[in-house]
């Protein structure tokens, strides 16, 4: 009995009490395929220290990065019909929605809207959650963009939209396509009020999203290496029967060809937005008196 109690039982207790190793302790970089310690990756805003690849992040993380001190207030979004077409492919559309809401919270969808301050200026931000059905734009996303525009006008704040989407949500058919003109109307609403409308393109921004509100910003910024376009590169090559250039549909290629205004690393986004808002919202800052020059001193002495 002493052998069991003194040797076997302590071994069993040690195995049972052993802490499980977290599944997300390491993350493989999709660019250089280096194994990255998740804690260090998170501290570096999910940017690979080795090759600079910008990994995809969630909407909440995005908002924390953009707003001053990571402080913002999320708003409740309008309700929309659930599964209006009673769509089913390999799975029911309602099952897919429930799966996403189990991960991101009840009544959640592909877009979060929040307001706060960026660089000290009032701002409203709408950020896409790619993890929710690929950030696809359905009626809920259209309502979210419209709600963000209305809030920006009400608060006389800039509207910043951060798409990360595969395009329109096929499970809502033509109803999802109607969100393209609705989001254009939302952008126009902000512009007509004389407020800045800024778009930050992230990986990926494709389909109906890139064909609507994502490409009509007053200023369009993109993260490094982001895939931006309408149809996929493979589809285009098969259609035109030509090989596309290296880096086609990447943010650097679009900057070179005048499609966007800036490519800004993630760590510099908040500071860049602050400077832009400072120029757009306060174009005539108070003049700082300069030190008297030698000519001024001589002139005053002559008087």
Q: What string, H for helix and E for strand, traces the elements in order?
A: HEEHHEHEEHEHHEHEHHEHH
Sum up the overall morphology in one term. Answer: globular
Number of domains: 2
Number of strands: 9
Multimeric state of these chains?
Answer: single chain
* Biggest β-sheet description: 7 strands, mixed
CATH class call of the largest domain: Alpha Beta
Low-pLDDT regions: none
- The whole-number mean of residue pLDDT values reads 90
Write the CATH homologous superfamily of the largest domain. Answer: 2-enoyl-CoA Hydratase, Chain A, domain 1
Nearest-angstrom radius of gyration? Answer: 25 Å
Structure, briefly:
With 303 residues, this protein is α/β, with parallel strands linked by helices.
Explain this structure.
- The protein starts with a helix and ends with a helix.
- The model has no long low-confidence stretch (mean pLDDT 90).
- It has two domains: 21-55, no CATH class; 56-280, 2-enoyl-CoA Hydratase, Chain A, domain 1, CATH 3.90.226.
- Helix content is 39%, strand content 14%.
- The radius of gyration is 25 Å and the shape is globular.
- It has twelve helices and nine strands.
- The strands form two sheets. A seven-stranded mixed sheet has the order 3-4-5-6-7-8-9, sandwiched between helices. A two-stranded antiparallel ribbon has the order 1-2.
- The relative contact order is 0.10.
- The protein is α/β, with parallel strands linked by helices and 303 residues long.
- Helix 5 (139-155) packs parallel to helix 7 (179-192).
Task: Please give a handful of descriptors for the protein shown.
seven-stranded mixed beta sheet; 303 residues; 9 strands; single chain; 14% strand; two-stranded antiparallel ribbon; globular; 12 helices; 2-enoyl-CoA Hydratase, Chain A, domain 1; 39% helix; alpha/beta
């Amino acid at each position: 009995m002493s052998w069991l109690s003194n040797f076997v039982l302590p071994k069993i207790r040690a195995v049972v009490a052993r802490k499980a190793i977290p599944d997300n302790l390491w993350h493989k970089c999709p660019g250089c395929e280096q194994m990255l310690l998740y804690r260090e990756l998170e501290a570096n805003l999910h940017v690979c220290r080795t090759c600079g690849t910008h990994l995809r992040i969630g909407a909440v993380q995005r908002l924390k990065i953009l707003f001053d001190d990571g402080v913002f207030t999320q708003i409740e979004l309008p309700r929309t019909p659930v599964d209006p077409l009673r769509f089913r492919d390999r799975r029911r559309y309602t099952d897919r929605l429930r799966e996403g809401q189990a991960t991101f919270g009840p009544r959640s969808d592909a877009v979060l809207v929040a307001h706060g301050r960026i660089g000290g200026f009032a701002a409203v931000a709408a950020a896409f959650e790619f993890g929710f059905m690929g950030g696809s734009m359905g009626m809920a996303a259209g309502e979210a963009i419209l709600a963000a525009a209305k809030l920006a006008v009400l608060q006389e704040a800039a509207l910043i939209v951060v798409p990360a989407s595969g395009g329109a949500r096929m499970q809502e058919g033509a109803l999802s396509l109607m969100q393209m003109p609705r989001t254009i109307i939302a952008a126009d609403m902000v512009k007509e009020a004389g407020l800045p409308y800024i778009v930050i393109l992230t990986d990926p921004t494709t389909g109906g999203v890139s064909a609507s509100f994502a490409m009509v910003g007053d200023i369009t910024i993109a993260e490094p290496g982001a895939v931006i376009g309408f149809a996929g590169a493979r589809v285009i090559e098969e259609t035109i029967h030509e090989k596309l250039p290296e880096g086609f549909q990447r943010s650097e290629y679009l900057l070179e060809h005048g499609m966007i205004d800036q490519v800004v690393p993630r760590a510099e986004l908040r500071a860049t937005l602050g400077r832009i808002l400072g120029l757009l919202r306060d174009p005539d800052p108070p003049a700082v008196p300069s030190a008297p020059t030698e000519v001024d001193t001589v002139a005053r002495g002559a008087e």
